[in-house]
Amino acid sequence: MNTNAFALRHIGPRENDQNLMLKTLGVDSLDQLIYETIPDDIRLKNGLNLEAPMTEHDYLLHIHELSKKNKAYKTYIGLGYHPTILPAVIQRNILENPGWYTAYTPYQAEISQGRLEALLNFQTMVIDLTGMEIANASLLDESTAAAEAMSLLFAVRDRQQKKAGVNKFFVSENILPQTLSLLQTRANPIGIELVVGNEDTFDFSSEFFGAILQYPGKNGQVTDIKTFIAKANDAQIKVAVAADILSLIKLEAPGKFGADVVVGTTQRFGIPMGYGGPHAAYFATKEAYKRDLPGRIIGVTKDKNGNRALRMALQTREQHIKRDKATSNICTAQVLLAVMASMYAVYHGPKGLQFIANKVHNKASELANALKTLGYNQINTSYFDTLQIKTKAKKIKAIAKEKKVNLYYPDKETVIIAINETTSIRDINYLISVFAEAAKKDTITISAVTEANNISESIQRTSDFLTTDVFNTYHSETELMRYIKFLERKDLALNHSMISLGSCTMKLNAASEMLPLSWFKWGNIHPFAPLKQAKGYLTVLKELEDQLTEITGFASTSLQPNSGAQGEFAGLMVIKAYHESRGDHHRNICLIPSSAHGTNPASAVMAGMKVIVTKSTLEGNIDVDDLREKAELHKDNLSALMVTYPSTHGVYESAIKEITQIIHDNGGQVYMDGANMNAQVGLTNPGNIGADVCHLNLHKTFAIPHGGGGPGVGPICVAKQLVPFLPGNPIIKTGGKDAITAISAAPFGSALACLISYGYIKMLGAEGLRESTKIAILNANYIKHRLEGSFDTLYSGERGRAAHEMIVDCRPFKANGIEVTDIAKRLMDYGFHAPTVSFPVAGTLMIEPTESESKAEIDRFCDAMISIKKEIDNASKDDDNNVLKNAPHTLDMITSDEWYFPYSREAAAFPLEYVRDNKFWPSVRRVDDAYGDRNLICSCIPIEAYAEA
Questions:
Q1: Eight-state DSSP code of residue 92
Q2: Residue pair 684/657 in contact by the 8 Å Cβ criterion
Q3: Which DSSP string do the residues of 424-452 spell out, in sequence order?
Q4: In sequence order, what are the beta bridge partners of 214?
Q5: 218-235: buried (b, 16+ CB within 10 Å) or exposed (e) per residue?
Q6: Is the N or C terminus of the chain more exposed, i.e. has fewer CB atoms within 10 Å?
């Protein structure tokens, strides 16, 4: 046994176990199983052209050497990204803790109460600081959040504006450049006309439905948003404000001035820059717009006993269930980063945050005074942390570069300096020396910082914030450590048991892949730093692009999309640009199978396409005849087909090459959803089946952890003809020669998280990747076989095999009064997170074990499912007081003096012997979603308010 081989650690079943599993399936070898599973005409004839795999030890040495190529200069660039101080207690107990980073999205609320509470804290923090009524549980980045704000304001236009076709949106010229680029990307496809201008001269015409301001502006000036918002309100123009969250400690909350939406990033709350991400954006608005709010909202409800419980609220638990009627395709959040940012606020509390904000502002003021003494013209009249110096930028730049200082130079006559939390008095003096040298004067030395106030009185903060107990209690490391552990114990994550979610691929997130995320020279690089300072990153990102290009069989890759939904949108926008480059502006029809993931139609509509749904056969495959008929009917306007492979039903459709050819014959391009790529790597690929573009979920196939519901990365890989249109960035050149405008804020999206997938591929190598795919298929088929006789598999391939996942039918159990939800909740008593519930078929479970799970763990899961089937057999429609309907069972129930149930406590809590060894206790009974939606509470409020509700 080669204990140095990473594949041995990543792949669960040992060789002996694999042989037993193959014998159970009635096949002689793994290759025979693959032959019976994957159509021969799409199998790769040659292996992947990747470097030989590294050991974990060698990889860590390699990635450490690469980190040295990154130059972590003192950075004052700003533009939405700042150096921060991540408290060690948060780094060690959340960022580096698999109890937090391996958890899944909190769809099963009863075993997610810890994450949900942390996200409720996040929402409370955002609501308090912005002065708004409701906030979501985070978005992808500030620029994406700003684009979502524009879309929301467009959707909630009043009836008269919609009737008149009002479609203009004013954008302040002080907006961040990356945000402007993303607004341009998102506006045109849905019919919004952007007008960029000076907010002081804006005429508030009735042709405008909305506006967005930057607060403070990109160059640091804090404008009078109070007056602007008042005039806009009078003119029936709704206003979004993109606000720096740390500045809101000293600036009055935009909600107090009447803003309709407030967005921004929480990166300043202790999150490393990471060359662009991942970071948690925030989005806050008025309660009147709650049903148009993108992403997720965490709300308060009660459980079956009437006790307080949390869950994802309203339809925003999955915005894209509205499919092509959705206002957004965003169905994710940056949960891990939102949790960290919320804990930063919990740890520091309101007084600590005031201390930090004052420190930043006072140092900026000291620097401004010193530069004025040196003769420089600082033109910001009201500012928080950023100075705007009018001088010859070239001269300053040369000296700053020599002294390893990064400033921002928007033009030849301007230098921008953004002070941050890490800036010391020594740093201020060093900055002064740069300008003194340029002015050929003696430098000025500051020995102490005095209190200052360079913010206009009319917009200074007077309102309280973070007044609830959670932000005023855990200020010692001991207390915060215990609070984090208290929440962690309420959550079931991969460090406890298998999470067999179909389509979500909850595989091992290896420690060796995760370790570099905490290293200084990976975390502290600004995304707009000069490229020469990011050589380590550029090496990793270029090689990862090449690796993904090889794996998918395409010509090039963009890492910019920072979620699967962003990847979908990016792929369609690249297809749109390709058609338009050929003069085919009219091609706007997107064919989507009825079984597709709900984000597919939402993404297509966002890209300005019209969705035509194609039928599925009884076997769950695409109805080829119906597809051909619709492709030919719309051939003059056909833009794309969106297809998932293997299918969402867990089957390798044998007609896939015929399907892609039909689209090409009728002038369209094929977009492949990469959600199921874990069943392709090394065995087949999108290029081989005839696709033109695919997005990949690096948080699925390529081992980035789900983080409790984010981060994710959704790069797109494209065929040769689409390469010129890969997305660009307004500051750092990326993408193709005819690049579309930005898809996310940073040039390379969530670059820090990309280190994980880079390590995953480097350590597995071609053979390890191929073996992982094979074992994923073996594990799925083994589960399918073991559950036969208890659960029917809804769809299978032509030879009776599943792909890497399968759908089991729970609808027949309605005869016993049992719903699929009852099975999901009962699995908690057995120590398991439920498989995917009622997707893509209502009343079913979609099961995917991944390659990382051992035979022993899979057997425990199968034993649990078979045991539950016996419980179902003993249930009846006439009696709902049974072990399934009452699930999950909490410790309070089991230890109560009273027991009202017709089954034993042992049957409730310890249904199988293995459960005793590692019992996980759900912290609440089954939650009441309907009650929570009727009484929507999405922030921390005094306990008395819950009783009143």
A1: I
A2: no
A3: -HHHHHHHHHHHHHHHTS-----------
A4: 242
A5: bbbbbbbbbebbeebbee
A6: N
